[in-house]
Design a protein that fits this description.
The protein is an all-alpha fold. It has one domain: Growth Hormone, Chain: A, CATH 1.20.1250.20. It is built from 18 helices and no strands. Helix 3 runs antiparallel to helix 4.
Length: 454
């Protein structure tokens, strides 16, 4: 009599398949889209001087603030909607749809005949790209072996710096070719094109085996793992996959039940505080530097240098999340960010402004890297993209508010703005520590982790 093979837990199967070409390819594909999203999110800060010239907008006007806000408002709606949908219908469908819509609406903005059209296009672009955040990070977390997961999630976030560098360099280059009133259209149009490459590359990526298994599609989950095995040159165990424990149908309300309630609220506060401070500073930084007397080329060159300062922040974060843990790394970076905001306030010379801005850039993007590694590991599989969508939606809510708060930088209330941002970073650090769970080295939860993380 032939013995029936013992069922293999999905995490064990993924760990046995190891790290190889599949995960590196997935990182490159998701990273390309993440860089493209960074370009879309940040480009309005670079385009605003040209848009203001084209449509006659006054500095700090309501229309200018709304243009900076529109993308974030769309991302707020998109993050919640697409995150919920990806847990219901699977990661891959959303994985492809959001990128397609981002390209279409991004290009539409480049042809805007007026402010109203441009506002609508930017809102819809934000709605589309808002879905890439929860889905990309869930996909990456669910395909990478346990020992490498935290590092890879930081690696993925580091592509944000690539997008920042590219959009700054592109804005600088276009400023040498066209007048500002024309250059912004080229900037919006060219920034949408990387999404086309990302879409074509994504067509070859299977759905997450974890998401498939949770939805009862064991054969398809096994097929996805076989593709990983072939790409990595390894062998999938000839045994059935252990189905996840039975659980009631997951709904967004489950994020606020039991142990998840406290975790969701604290994570939401971390995402809100970090986002309010980050976008409050960096969405207005080009305009702030311009107001200090720098010409447009010098503003773009300075912003490019600050983007490069993000890279060592990511590299150190990728090391620390596996060495000292996700929570401690996140708290440390947030504390340095709070300190950096006050140092920026005290900076009295152009070189001091550049150095303190570089410190802020280094610390804030390191904090983002640690947060993106930590968050998907705190939600169980049936709620992973829903949870990511909700907390990132809180970040988008902060992003909607941040241009109005950041406008204080241009109206001479620098101390008020930076004190508020430093307080946001400090409160976020306290909330991150209060979560009380360290996920380093742990398998992704199918059900809720115990409160003490054991």
């Amino acid at each position: 009599m032939t013995a029936i093979p013992r069922a293999v837990p999905l995490d064990d199967a993924i760990d046995r398949l190891g790290l190889g070409r599949f995960q590196w390819r997935l990182l490159a594909i998701c990273g390309l889209t993440w860089a493209a999203d960074a370009m879309e999110v940040l480009l309005m800060g670079f385009a605003l001087p040209g848009i203001s010239a084209a449509f006659g907008l006054a500095r700090g006007s309501a229309d200018a603030t709304w243009l900076l806000t529109a993308t974030f408002a769309g991302m707020l709606v998109g993050a919640v909607f697409w995150g919920w949908l990806a847990d219901r219908v699977g990661r891959r469908a959303v994985f492809l749809t959001t990128v397609s819509l981002g390209v279409v609406f991004g290009l539409a903005g480049a042809f805007a005949p007026g402010v109203t059209w441009l506002l609508a296009a930017r809102f819809l672009t934000g709605f589309a790209i808002g879905g890439t955040l929860p889905v990309d990070y869930a996909m990456m977390a669910e395909f990478v072996p346990t020992a490498w997961r935290g590092r890879f999630l930081v690696y993925l976030e580091s592509f944000w710096a690539l997008g920042t560098v590219v959009v700054a360099a592109l804005a600088w280059w276009l400023s040498t070719l066209f007048e500002p009133a024309e250059a912004w259209r080229w900037l919006l149009g060219l920034a949408a094109l990387p999404g086309v490459v990302g879409l074509l590359a994504r067509l070859g990526i299977p759905d997450s085996p974890r998401s498939l298994l949770v939805r009862g599609r064991e054969l398809e989950a096994r097929g996805a793992l076989l593709r990983v095995a072939r790409a990595n040159g390894t062998v999938l165990p000839d045994a059935p996959l252990l189905p996840p424990p039975p659980a009631p149908r997951a709904t967004p309300a489950a994020l606020f039940q039991g142990v998840l309630r406290r975790r969701t609220v604290l994570l939401a506060l971390v995402w809100f505080g970090l986002s309010l401070g980050y976008y409050g500073i960096f969405s207005w930084l080009p305009s702030y530097l311009r107001a200090q007397g720098l010409d447009l080329g010098a503003v773009y060159r300075t912003t490019l240098l600050l983007a490069l300062a993000q890279l060592p922040g990511y590299v150190l974060a990728a090391y620390l999340v596996e060495k000292v843990g996700r929570r401690a790394t996140l708290v440390g970076y947030l504390a340095v960010s709070a300190l950096g905001a006050y140092l920026f306030l005290l900076a009295g010379t152009p070189s001091a402004v550049l150095l303190t801005s570089a410190l802020l850039s280094f610390a804030l993007l390191g904090a983002w890297g640690a947060l993106y590694a930590y968050t998907p590991e705190l939600f169980p599989t049936p709620l992973r993209t829903t949870g990511m969508g909700f907390v990132s939606g809180m970040a988008r809510l902060a992003s909607v508010l941040s241009p109005s708060v950041g406008a204080l930088l241009l109206t001479g209330q620098l101390g008020v703005a930076l004190t508020l941002f430093a307080a946001c970073f400090a409160v976020a650090a306290v909330c991150a520590w209060g979560i009380g769970v360290e996920t380093r080295g742990r398998k992704l939860p199918e059900t809720v982790l115990p409160e003490n993380g054991v």
